[in-house]
Amino acid sequence: MTSSCGRYVLVFNGELYNLEEVVRLLPPRRRRLRTRSDSEVLLEFLAERWVDALPSLRGMYAFALWDRERERCLLARDPFGIKPLYVRHGEQGEIWFASEVRALLRVSTRRGELDVAALASFLSWGFVPEPFSLVQGIESLPAGCFGIWEEGRWSQGLFQPPPFPAEAVVADGDAVELVRDALRCSTRAHLTDDPSVGLCLSGGRDSATLMALSPFPLPCFTLGFAEPGFDESRLASRLAGAWQRPHHLRHIGAHRAALELHSYLAAMDQPSTDGFNTYCLARLIRESGVRVVLSGIGGDELFGGYPTFERIPHLLRLHAELGHRSTTLALLHGRCPGAESQRLAGFLGGAASIDSAYRCLRGLFAPPEVQALLESWGLGEAAATASLSVEPHTQCNILEHKPAPHVCERIACLESSHYMAGQLLRDADVFAMAHGVELRLPMVDPALVAVVARLPWEQRFGPGKELLRRAVPELDPLLGNCAKRTFSFPFQRWLDSPDGGFAETFSRLPSLPVPETVDTHPWQRRWALMTLGWWMSTHLDFELSI
To answer: pLDDT tens-digit profile of 299-318?
Structure first.
């Protein structure tokens, strides 16, 4: 889209949720809008303020603004990194940008070369952490950052959102009301007065909250399974029925999941242990005719719903209580080939920190296993010269606004800027858009975070997401104190089943060889090696020297 003055051209992916507010900030000469689309409003706002416009935007976005007069380009990405944006630099100062790594592999005459350090990070986590990709020279523009290209030179900076108010101790009842009002406002903003939006509904509290607070009777979408430990469809149906919401339910078994594997891989932009659930759910949504859905992603990061909020403090206490004995225990665990023992050995054998405990719980392969895999693939020498780091990458982000946060606040920052940004948001966008479905995330919203994150940790991180539960008490008759579940498939059972068609289909997909010393029984490890092998052979034409 070209600006009214003809000087600027915008390419925009995303959605603004404070459109009317931005329009009011425009000077009168730029309010003569041809449309009321957020693309045009954003374009005129950027034409007026350039980089200074960014802190005022509320939404999910990745965009490029070309200044015809000065021949310069502004790239920017929203504070949480909901929308992807990758950059590749040419040898003569050229720059390419796209929403997918795969697109940037096609724009240069240079053959894509594997980034071994990024590969090691993938093996450590099960996804490629931001801002890296598996291809040398292709990187993600970090969340909340902008970049300016002019005359072949590239500069990059972090734009600061409006500062949080100072931490305020408020009465419990007032905190509950503040959070409920912020949740309601965020839900309404993400609907943008559009009643045709749907909702991804599990049996969990996050998505149920969005359903309960929506002013529209959103159609709800759920996947169900025959395996009781994974199926939440009955509870989701009861929730939808209690709120009189249209409910679309599809049961997925091993056979149907096997049929989706090849199309899932074809849609994959970077290898990951996640995303298959979103891919299958987005197909159901698309087939129903709905194109935009709300999702509860972000609630666990904001209100402390993950097991890491309880288990990391426990690991830190254990390390302290063991003292010098932790080294001995690390050696004993290191001799056990099991995946959990290997990760625990890495934690006990080093200095105790929140980051190392987080890696122990969230990691995929332990550092010695990563090294063994790389050496077995003939990449040991390249790994030795690369700058390898398995620590989680967490830039100073919107959740970390204090110099010495409490342990739970640090965990929230890790979950938000590492796991959520590097895996959940990236995979959700890629695999939903593979079916032309747009996900909107009311729980990943700066205005909501500004209210919740200023509360003291004692109020914010109660057990069982107590603050969220108290903010939406009408869900309690159905949800009660239900234990936290993740939206995942019964892959372990399907892969271990001797008569399952899923295991047979999976075994025929490209994978990577593994030394006998590395445990690959956990399904996440097998899935990671399969997606990695498929991706490298498909996009890099990469052959290992075995």
So the answer is: 999 999 999 999 999 999 99
